[in-house]
Amino acid sequence: MAETLIKIDLSKSPQEHDNIHNRWHPDVPMVATVKPGSDFIVECMDWTGGQIGNNDSAEDVRDVDLSKVHYLSGPIAVEGAEPGDLLVVDILDIGAFADQMWGFNGVFAKENGGGFLTEHYPEARKTIWDFNGIYTKSRHIPGVEFIGLMHPGLIGCLPSQDLLDEWNSREQALIDTDPDRVPALANPPYAPTAHVGRATGDAAAKVAAEGARTVPPREHGGNCDIKDLTKGSRVFFPVYVKGGGLSMGDLHFSQGDGEITFCGAIEMAGWIHIRVNVIKDGCKKYGVKNPIFQPSDMAPSYKKHLIFEGISVDESGKQHYLDAHVAYRQACLNAIEYLKKFGYSGAQAYSLLGTAPVQGHISGIVDVPNVCATIWIPTEIFDFDIMPNAEGPTIAVSSPEVPTALWKG
């Protein structure tokens, strides 16, 4: 039986744990050291640290303090790992806690981060999902049940000081192009809510003042939200500090490609069982700048899909040049409009695209001026037929709108 290397207590706040941190910085102290070849279990809070409840109100999503997230378990040092090496992480298993078999999906208010389609869905919304073994369904979105593809939304190694400085410099330069934008273009360091693990004194103050926020993916990995990073997969992370400093969290029961509602997966607290190894000088040997991974053979076997296309022409009819962001937005909006014909509200369909195991593809990116992006919805997840036919769509679901909370003020 594998050792549980990092344990958490869900009855306590993240700040009461010294084996958790919420900023990236090379001076966050390691909480454990393991040998190459070791396998162990790491327990993780949900990414908000317990700010979201299993209820029918979206006020907690509206009021969530995003300056505190993500709460990560670690960092873990691997003996012999040095800058320039590759840290090899095998994900052996992953699951929810037995006494917390539920998760949540949220749409943040535009004023508090928004989402991929925030202009269309600016209010805070929430759906709750109950787990039954490998399956999940929601009382807020009837008519669907699917197999979860559990994965860590966030996993990576500590940055070096040079890399951290580069992150903060380039992201601040982006913010400076439109400092009053809502939502903000990026999230700079913010000391008041920094949780610095076991750092103390001057080191703690330095981590709080300089520590990079955990929201985006970066060269070290981080918040990549790759749904296929499930049990049976292998990841190769660039090492930037002695020991690597591996941290993880933001566990997802399921997610669609793109995690489009921002809090777009089915978020959960739980555990992850991993094994670590080291490839010496692996970054140079293989020309690695960002993590690379080998997906698992254990993905759900959905074979029938309905595919929606989008191109680089936005909702107003404006033509964009080879813009994949615009094209994928249009694919998502087209899918939502289609699902509304069966009785879903737009918000229900939006949440479904963020949680179900949909696939997102860049299907063409060279044919000027339009990118062709597609979103693939597995038809087997519905308990009714969503395929087009001569008779037209049948209203198959009828339910109240998902919990919504208007922005205060």
From TrEMBL:
Pfam families, from UniProt?
Answer: FmdA_AmdA
**GO molecular-function term, one example from the UniProt record:** hydrolase activity, acting on carbon-nitrogen (but not peptide) bonds, in linear amides
* InterPro entries named in the record: FmdA_AmdA, FormamaseFmdA
The cross-references to PANTHER family, in alphabetical order and at most eight, read: FORMAMIDASE C869.04-RELATED (PTHR31891:SF1)
Coiled-coil intervals in this record?
A: none
Q: Know the name of this protein?
A: Formamidase
Gene3D superfamilies xrefs: Acetamidase/Formamidase-like domains
